[in-house]
Structures are given as C-alpha cells and as structure tokens.
Design goal:
By secondary structure, the protein is an alpha/beta fold. It has 7 helices and 6 strands, in the order H-H-E-E-H-E-E-E-H-E-H-H-H. Helix 4 packs across helix 7. Bound molecules: zinc ion. The site of zinc ion (ZN) has 3 residues, from loops.
Length: about 270
C-alpha cells in the first residue's frame, strides 16, 4: 500500500515514480492473470467433475440394466418350464396316442417275412450298429434262378469260407418270400459306403436279364413301402446299388430307367395307401 501513496506524490519526480507504477501495474496484471487462470482451472475442474459424475451415473445405470436383463433371462426359462410342466400331461397323452397309432399302422401293414438271422461273424454279420437309416438300397442277386434260402445260405457260409464279405438285411425270393438275414439296426455288407446308413434288399430273378417276376416285384414294393413307413422315409429314399458305386445292380433297373422310376412310384402309391 505504501507504494500506492508514492504514485500519487505531487513532487514531480516522475521518472522514478513512473517506474514504480509500471511495476505495480505489471504486478496487478500478473495477479489478475493469475486469478483468471485460477478461476478457469477451477471451472475446468468443476466441469470435469460433473462429467465424471454423469459418466459414473451412466455406468451404474448400464450395469443395472444388464443385470436386470440377466435376471430376466434366468427367470424366463423357469416360466417356460412351469408352463411346459402344466401342459406336459396333455401333450404327452397326445404324443403317446399318436405313437400308438403309428405302431398300430406299422404292425397292420407288416409284410409276411421270415426272420432267419445269420450267425454273427466278420464276413456277413459283423454286428455293427447302423448310424441312422437314411435310405433303402435295392440289389439283384446276379445269380439267376436261385432262391432266397439259397442266397441266405451263401451269406451264412461266408463265416467258414471267408471268401468275401457280403450279406443283406433282406432277401426276396422268386415266389415273393422274404427272409430277414440281418436286423435293420445292424450293418449288412451290401452297399459299400452306404452300408452304415441304409437297409439293403437282395432280390432274386429268374434269368440273365435281371428282370424280376411279378411275385418278387410285389414283395419288393410291399417291403420297401413298409420300411419307408417304419423308418419315416419315402420313395425318394430308395436307391439302387448302382447309385452308390456305379455297379450294374440291380441290372434290370439300371438298364431300364423307366422301370426303376415306375418301381419307386409304385412304392409311393402303396405307402400313400397305408
Ligand atoms: Zn448290389
């Protein structure tokens, strides 16, 4: 304050006083600048604090929102489960009824066939489980005039002769007789890479043309339609050995594409009548 009085001294000794005034002014200017900076910093700090608060609040809200969603998710399955458990008896009854009806239909349309399973052995009945039944493969025996029983004996004999690996789930004979040699849930050695997911049917034929007689044909249609129904397949699931490996089997259906198409159509018609 003393310096202020010096400023307003009227002695006229200006140069010295002016220097002091300049210093004071400079000091004041610096002080004001300092205060301004301080205020600005304070304002900035306040803004920063508010921003942090807002961000924290948003973060908390987000966490609460996510947690709510998680708990909702946890609750929902219980609600669904509860709903299910209340409606299950009715559904179960309906399903059981449907299944019963289906089984009844399968029994009703079962063709006459003889179960004469091969002795388990690595050459014709390896007792390997089928992965899934995706199709039915039709074959011809390539042995004109032989019966279903003779072909079965050939497969059975492989356990002793070890000449090759061959078999079939079913054989259909010249009189329309059907013999089951391998259960449908077991692999038969007939269709190469499709042994694992198909059922095979060997069909007897009277001569070299490979054409099936009417009795054999009728049983082929019946058996194929029944297997399609039982395993929830359709006529499009029928394939020839030829379709797997290109082998001329069943000869007549490979050489006569129209006959093969007609056969599939006949199976489809029979299936629709079940
Ligand atoms: Zn074949």
């Amino acid at each position: 304050m003393k310096k202020v009085y010096t400023v307003i001294d009227k002695s006229g000794n200006k140069p010295q006083k002016n220097g002091e005034i300049a210093v004071i002014r400079e000091e004041r200017r610096r002080r004001e600048a300092f205060l301004t900076r301080k205020q600005r910093r304070k304002r900035q700090r306040t803004i920063q604090m508010i921003r942090r608060c807002v961000l924290s609040c948003l973060g908390v809200l987000l966490i609460v929102f996510v947690m709510t969603k998680i708990f909702q998710k946890d609750e929902n399955p219980q609600a669904v489960q509860a709903e299910k458990s209340t409606s299950t008896p009715a559904n179960m009854q309906e399903l059981e009824k449907k299944e019963e009806g289906f089984q009844q239909k399968v029994i009703e349309h079962t063709p006459d066939y003889q179960v004469d399973l091969l002795t388990p052995n690595p050459y014709s009945r390896p007792q390997m489980a089928l992965e899934e039944i995706k199709g039915i493969v039709v074959h011809y025996t390539a042995n004109p005039g032989t019966t279903a029983a003779q072909n079965r004996s050939y497969f059975e004999g492989l356990k002793d002769t070890h000449t090759t690996q061959a078999s079939s789930n079913f054989i259909i004979g010249l009189e329309g007789e059907i013999i089951q040699c391998v259960p449908t849930w077991e692999v038969a050695y007939a269709s190469n890479e499709r042994n694992i997911d198909t059922i095979s049917i060997e069909c007897c034929h009277p001569d070299e043309t490979g054409k099936f007689n009417d009795d054999t044909y009728r049983s082929m249609v019946q058996l194929c339609a029944w297997l399609c129904m039982k395993f929830e397949l359709n006529e499009e699931s029928l394939i020839r050995h030829y379709d797997v490996t290109g082998k001329l089997c069943p000869k007549y259906f490979v050489e006569n594409e129209e006959a093969w198409k007609k056969f599939k159509k006949d199976v489809g018609t029979t299936l629709a009548d079940f």
